[in-house]
Amino acid sequence: MSVAAVEARPRRVAPLGNYANNSSPAALQQGLDRRQRKRKRRTERHTLRHKERRMTKLDRVRKCGYVTVGGDGGGPGLRVSPDPKGGGNIAGFSGLLTCGSVWACPVCSAKIATRRAEELADVMRFGLEQGCRASMVTLTMRHHEGQSLKECWKALGKAWAAVTSGKQWRTDCERYGLRGWVKAVEVTHGSSGWHAHIHALLIWDDPIGLAEARHVGDRMWRRWTRALQRCGFDSLRRSADGKDLGVDVRMASLKPGHGSGLHEYFVKLSHEITGGQNKLAKGGGRTPFQILTDALANGEAADVHGWREWELASKGRRQIAWSKGLREWAGLGQEQSDEEIAAEELAAEDVLFLEPESWRELRDTPERVCKLLEVTEDGGYPASMALLDQWSMGYLVAKVYPRPKPPPRDHEHWQLRRDRLDESKRLVGSLARELSETGAWWRQLRELGIE
């Protein structure tokens, strides 16, 4: 298929017709409810990102999903394609800048978390096929009020490096057959400041049990604690009631969806990225996006300061890391960066383009942006054009035609092209001879002293 022409559609007001997809399984109420929840979360994320623009200090976040790749001189394309996971279509825009911030952008963060969950699910399925076992280890930090997030993060990195190095670590890996690990960083904020901790999924070739997993986890925690203490932090082993606080070890199912693996953590993260469910983090703290939501709603100086500290300290940090060789073992290939995942667009042709003035008007109302995506998913381009007409917004429509087949080789068209090519070759040869003769003539004149 090739885009042969682009037709401009003027602004006009027209009634919005009914373009609902009657072939969708409306009787499956559960599927419809799931789609509505998914759309509600999308609207929440787009709305939060739009409000964040007036607070963020990060230029890329401010432009994310707002400015086109070529600046404000053009409008984005609207694409729609079948949802690879089934259940209808999925719509999106093309040609918009993305920030790729897993920490500071609610839209990019959810997209990246979804991809990471898919990758972890693939690793877990492969491990299950190979007869592997898995355990989850959570390592937490004990901090004091006044310690900055930057200091916490720096200590966290040094402590994890100590956990996965040294003779003791190598001995445990060889003894129990550790295939590899995946670790993710989670940060919350409580009454005494920032709480940074690590979730690690360990995949074992040998059929270890909970007792062995706890033995390895306890040794990991000891190295973790010693490294934190060298940085001025600590990790409390047990509370007054005997509950483990510094480390948590449990066996993890390699079956995605069973609620005990790192895969489920990223699925949950992608669903609750905005904190719209008003759910506090474990232990009574708040996630960074909940801090952002509260700062925008109330304007409290502590929340505004907390969010800006979070933006600066988290910039450039990795959320997830893989042990060497694990991705290759599972057949995942080279890891994409957060920025590359966020910049991916739907695999579809641009058929409809918003005019620059229309996009500048539409982008400041994220609810209408999401409404346009929903209508396009339900009714395709005819429905989106009807909605834009109702909103009196201009757009361009690309006319897509099949590429014409080339004529047969013995067609007279090809004979004519060959004749023209032969004539061109003859003329070029004649011109080259004339230039050669002219050059020889000038050389003879110079030899005679005539310029």
3D architecture notes:
The protein has 451 residues and is α+β, with helices and mostly antiparallel strands. It has helices spanning 29-52, 59-63, 106-129, 149-163, 167-176, 210-230, 262-271, 288-298, 301-314, 326-330, 338-343, 356-362, 366-390, 412-447, and strands spanning 2-9, 77-82, 89-94, 133-140, 178-190, 193-204, 247-252, 320-322, 352-354, 395-401. The strands form two sheets. The chain has a five-stranded antiparallel beta sheet. The protein folds into three domains: 1-95 and 345-404, no CATH class; 107-287 and 317-332, no CATH class; 413-451. β5 (178-190) and β6 form a beta hairpin. α1 packs across α13 (366-390), α4 (149-163) packs across α6 and α5 (167-176) packs antiparallel against α6 (210-230).
Descriptive keywords:
alpha+beta, 16% strand, five-stranded antiparallel sheet, 10 strands, 14 helices, 3 domains, 451 residues
Topology:
Elements: E1 2-9, H1 29-52, H2 59-63, E2 77-82, E3 89-94, H3 106-129, E4 133-140, H4 149-163, H5 167-176, E5 178-190, E6 193-204, H6 210-230, E7 247-252, H7 262-271, H8 288-298, H9 301-314, E8 320-322, H10 326-330, H11 338-343, E9 352-354, H12 356-362, H13 366-390, E10 395-401, H14 412-447
Antiparallel strand pairs: 1-10, 2-3, 2-9, 4-6, 4-7, 5-6, 5-8, 9-10
Helix pairs in contact: 1-13, 3-7, 4-6, 5-6, 8-9
